[in-house]
């Protein structure tokens, strides 16, 4: 390991480029080796590789080592299903039983879609799900059925983000997501962490030995820093919320809506995570646009989107994007050219696969295509 001028350790030199199909097949076989059913292994593989394809490497295959550690800690449970614990018509309370979020969130959203189609709206409270990954995935599941949705999520027990005005971590990266479907066109999908950067993006920077953008981190004394080591090495610092007091406020609402309202749990001294588990709670509100007395929702929406995109571009801007467009462009590019994975992250994934008993030849096959 070398030390750069900026004092951040260099662990690797360059990225691997991995074919999406080969990677999906590898992830599927990895979870099968862990003991997942074929359906479970397939859902996890689809979700993680889709996160990489859309450019959100923080929520892609790089999460596998953490999931495997969580499995070994006894937090993550395989082959679980979403359990409806209370059906109050337009409100469903669903327990994720610490199962793979890629399965239990899929099932919880499926319940919500069915109900929203029937009565116009459904609020789904999903609690105790293991990491549910990229939240846009769940909004897209609703949008494919022509449904609007918004989602508030907490990372229960995770105190990695400092409140506005505070100097240590008090809540998680609590993402917010909303999607608006369009007929014959791709939906608008707004999907972001309420921290300046997602924690996984600090992990990617740490593994690459690089910096994060200014304004995203503080050190253990509350001083601004761009060194991601403060998130992974003692003494620990914290992430900052985006948009000053506004991100702080949205993060708190995400925590309350998802962790308290659903019967899950919020982050405080008694619930702080002391193991490798990542538990998400999510409040999803799913609406059938047809339930409103609106003459032409579609035309109004299209007129607005066209109006926004017609703004004269500022210096250095090639395109005005609607939420979700950058992900679709990245998806097309990575599907064609491959998914970049830094070698430090790949080494961690290989070690996790080996710990699950996957033969070396099978592990290597992901990089062969
Ligand atoms: N499960 C969890 O616990 C958890 C926690 C935090 C974040 N996440 C996920 O992490 C992922 C990454 O979050 P992030 O905060 O790094 O996202 P980000 O900062 O990359 O923001 C992404 C959003 O901004 C939009 N966007 C980006 N550039 C744009 C542009 N130039 N013009 C218009 N719109 C633009 C994207 O379409 C997308 O909606 C998300 O998918 C989120 O759901 C999950």
TrEMBL record:
The keyword Oxidoreductase applies. Belongs to the LDH2/MDH2 oxidoreductase family. Keywords: Oxidoreductase. Coiled coil: none annotated. This is Uncharacterized oxidoreductase. NCBIfam families: PRK10098.1 (NF007504). One of its GO terms (molecular function) is oxidoreductase activity. Pfam families: Ldh_2 (PF02615). Transmembrane segments: none annotated.
